[in-house]
Amino acid sequence: MLHHRPRLRRQLRYALAFAVLLATVTTRPAAADDIVAVYTAFWAGLPAADIRLKLSDGGPGYHDEIEIATQGLPHLFTRFRATASAEGRRAADRPPEPSHYLAVYDLRKRHDRRVSMQFVSRSGGTIAERGPDDTSRKPPLAEAFRKNAVDPLSALERIRAALRAPERDGSFKIPVYDGARRFDIVGRVLPKTNPADGIIRAELTLRPIAGFKGETSEDGDPDDAPRKVELTVTEFLILKSLAHRPGHVKNRDQLMDAAYGEHIYVDDRTIDSHIKRLRKKFKAVDNEFGQIETLYGVGYRYRDH
After folding, report:
1. Is the dihedral of CA 171, 68, 107, 290 positive or negative?
2. 56-68 burial, b for 16+ CB within 10 Å, e for fewer?
């Protein structure tokens, strides 16, 4: 099953949320008060993205950063690359509070897109407002959803604080606003299986609140919501063969070998039928989908734009 996004603007936001889920990573030395984690995200068993996360680890203020670069099929589909940073302050008697957040990302046809937020005190709380360099085209959520919420990177600071001083039952909840959607990170510290190993493990769940569509929420977001695309194994193998080298023409024999192996022969029309079904499935979720191109008498190719 694939998830296709007709508007891929929120890839960074989900990547940041995904980073929250990776609570145990391998770190390497950086500056004296920094923690740097470098890891790889996988999709369908294959590397999908390189992620570098840097967290401040000392002083009353924090400046956290994340860099994400897709690879493999996700890179061929999206050309997605992004960086984000968050600033704020820590205090001994209250959770970390954000002040600024900036995410900059590139997609196949969109470059230097920005999600910028400033956190201001108003109405008895802290409100996330768009910064002057924000390029978002949709209006922000109502103020009630942006009140007392943190950005996705500052959510990591909140998680770290919750793990250092957990509640009696080990549970916590962090309200997050990513510039377009509001969700909660609901966490629970798990019992230690081996007290001597010094590792804290937590179970984290992302609970949608507003700005989502369809299966996750009734608030609606027709442009940005991910859509499931159910593919058979054969359809997936054909798509993978085409997308592996965008712009390169594959004839029907090559697609047969990719989908069925070299020792099974199927009629040319079988490949044509698979291509037709692939287009139909993607068009069902994105009417503008036209990446699979027919070159009559030659074969098919995946568009390189």
Report:
1. negative
2. bbeeeebbbbbeb
Distances (CA, A) of 263 to 10, 233, 270: 43, 18, 16
Report d(CA 267, CA 210) in Å as an integer. Answer: 49
Span 254-287, pLDDT tens digits: 999 888 887 777 787 899 999 999 999 888 777 7
CA 271 to CA 263: how far, in whole Å? 16
Q: Which of 104, 135, 103, 130 is nearest to 119 (CA)?
A: 130
- Alpha-carbon torsion (220, 149, 228, 205), positive or negative: negative
Distance CA 262, CA 257 (A): 5
For the stretch 105-138, pLDDT in tens is 988 777 889 999 999 998 789 999 999 999 988 7
Distance in angstroms (rounded) separating the CA atoms of residues 177 and 211: 10
Q: CA-based diameter of the chain, in Å?
A: 72
Other CB atoms within 10 Å distance of the CB of residue 87: 18
Q: Which of 83-97, 124-138, 141-155, 211-225 has the lowest mean pLDDT?
A: 211-225
Q: Are 77 and 243 in contact (CB under 8 A)?
A: yes
What's the rounded Cα separation, in Å, for the pair 265 and 268? 9
Nearest CA to 188 among 23, 36, 27, 14?
23
**pLDDT above 50: residue 60:** yes
Domains of the chain: 2-151 (no CATH), 230-302 (1.10.10.10)
Global pTM value = 0.63
In 3D space, the residue among 38, 13, 154, 24 whose CA is nearest the CA of residue 85 turns out to be 154
Q: What radius of gyration, in Å, describes the C-alpha atoms of the chain?
A: 22
For residue 145, count other CB atoms closer than 10 A to its CB.
18
